[in-house]
Write a structure and sequence with these properties.
- It is a single chain.
- This protein is mainly alpha-helical and 395 residues long.
- It folds into 3 domains: 242 residues, Rhopdopsin 7-helix transmembrane proteins, CATH 1.20.1070; 58 residues; 58 residues, Homeodomain-like (Arc Repressor Mutant, subunit A, Orthogonal Bundle).
- It is built from 16 helices and no strands.
Length: 395
Amino acid sequence: MSSSASLDLLPFALASAASGQSLLCLLVVLTGQSSPLPRRWLAGLFTMLAILASGPVVAAMLPSGQALMAGLLLVALYALPPLFWGYVTALTRLGPDAPRPLSLWHWVGPGLALACAGLIWTLPAGSVDFILATGELPGGTHAAATVFCVFVLVLAWNLVSGVYVHRILSRLNAYRRALRDHFSNTERRELAWLRVMIVAIVAVWLAVMAVLVWDNLVASLSLPPVVGSLLVMLLTTMLAARGLSQFPGLATVEPVDGGTNVDAPDDETGPKYRKSALEPDHAARIAARIEAVMVKDALYLDPNLSLPKLAKAIAVPANLVSQVLNQNLDTTFFDYVNRCRIAASLPRVLAGDATVLTIALDVGFNARSTFYTAFKAATGQTPSQWRASQSTEPG
């Protein structure tokens, strides 16, 4: 008896905890003082997550809770993709200006979901409970039209979500390329955690689809009622842990003609460098000045070196520096600077008189892991492997 009661209380307790967690994060967002644009989208995301988590709580506490939550859940599911997209565009915007407002078509899905929710909420009392309990229609065109609309919208949601996932991942890739056009160290600006979270959501979505297919075509199989609450808690935790402190990495960067443009239509890179007066001999002189300032002045030692800093050091506009790096030197700013840093680290690595972390920091890297990645990209080996290979080569 006691065990059964605890099992019945578990879904309610977890749903309460998940919805409370989301509402607490919403309160933190609304009372925060940092960048307002990402926080606006975070507030929407936490609100929708609270709705998704609160189903068992509302259903248990209100007589018409099932019907109320059925409509709200549909609206929340359709609101999450455009809210995620808005959050990503706010974090990856290029330049200090605010990103363009989302087009109205982003809200067509949530609008249709709200209209369908209206059909659900106007069903006769007990209809939703009857449908969920028996899987049958209570009769009447209203109920049939409502069930049909819900079915169509649920199927369409899978397609819509897939489109948003593709667009978000494409934009994150463009953002990563744009970072490499402007900064020599990108660790604090990277959004790898967001990419991991999106991939994890897709993996969970595929697992749920597999369970539904198995349940309908092979044998009875259903997810425990606590799974939804646990997933919302996990998603809320990831968003709170990183999203509340994440800042737009390109917000201080002025767009460079021809570079990667995350705000370009369809999330593709911007146009190639427009026709300019940069003649081959002029480009060669700029390239020589870049090489000179990097070698003689060791500008790469600055861990916060950026494209504007390099442009200022050689008194050349940033767009021309970017053009020369990409077209004449066939590299990005990020890769060029890291190549200089790795070249400077080789004698130190070979001497073996300092730790890898010390060498990495001395030549301009911000982290040991970043140094390892760049070193292996340049030499094909780790520092210890490279040192060992050099010592075994015939003199």
